[in-house]
Amino acid sequence: MAATITIATDFSEHASSSSSIKSLSESGITSIPSSFDASKNLHDLAVLDSPQNSTIPIIDFSLLTSTNPQQRCKIIQHLGKACEEWGFFLLINHGIPKRLMESMMEGVKGFFNLSDEEKREFQGKHIFDPIRCGSSFNTAIEKVHCWRDFLKVFVHPHFHFPHKPPGFSDTAFEYLKEIRGIIKELLKGVSESLGLEADYISKAVNLESSFQVFIANLYPPCPQPELAVGILPHSDHGLLTIASENGTNGFQILHNGNWVKVIAPPNALMVNTADLLEVVSNGKYKSNVHRAVVKSNSTRISMVTFNGSSLDQVISPAPELVDETHPPVFSCLTYRQFYEIQQSNSLHNKSVLDRVRIIP
Fold first, then answer.
1. Buried b (16+ CB within 10 A) or exposed e, 172-191
2. Phi and psi, residue 273, nearest 5°
3. Has the keyword Metal-binding been applied to this entry (predicted)?
4. What is the spatial distance between Cα 226 and Cα 222, in angstroms, rounded to a whole number?
5. Residue pair 261/53 in contact by the 8 Å Cβ criterion
6. Is residue 295 included in any domain, yes or no?
7. Which pLDDT tens digit goes with each residue over 285-342?
């Protein structure tokens, strides 16, 4: 006889005094509330394991910044191919000190280990509040909740950060400064791979005043991981998204109609091509659809940095990539408009990008 799967019918039944998934997970529940049942979203496509993972592009950042023109030319070609065929790559030799990455991860753990009462200080109520923490993604309208707690912070052009735990803000400032340096160099390479001047994208999006958002995600152990999802399938809203995790391997990307498990080498960064870059490249470089899955016996933590244009910058396809053969694929919009649309709706693949797509 097949095993019976029980789903709790009421979130409040188990978590009336809790405001986090972490607390819900630690409460001893043996089944998930029905609002977290994402089984219809989880089993629509095949999941490919590690053999396919070996083909995921790996970009050596040290070659991208090399003074050897032949090395740099070759890695720029690899970078363009990764953006076009995968919308994703693993970045190695990026130069961020290992100790800084470890300290940042410890700060994230420390924040999520604060009591729910302490974290309520940082809840926020509006999508443009500079510091917000909470659970799922947008519980007000989403039909399926995500098994996830998050901390979301605006860190550029103005730096904001929680003052707890001690030292976390200082560590984050240094870490995110390193990330911006990496983004600047990556966008040079991406520009050149498109046949544009190295500084084209940086100038087109006003990178010096770019809107940068840091998100820490906590995916606690789940009693029914086959039913729940950490974050629903979606593409990101910026240019390039840089992420790292605590080694639990719960990240999956959609490639050629299948979900591919990503197993990153130690200290490597995971990089997604995001929606605004698809707009700028006039559809040549595709933003990547991805999701996070959960496990029954381990906690996954990820640190994600969204890097976009300045909020009021109008984003449109690069004129150099538009002609009679390649008409504009997307309409113009500001990053602020795009961000508002994405943050005010539920997550679903490329639903936001599709709203600005020009239908022939």
1. beebbebbbebbbebbbbbb
2. -75, 125
3. yes
4. 9
5. yes
6. yes
7. 999 999 999 999 999 999 999 999 999 999 999 999 999 999 999 999 899 988 888 8
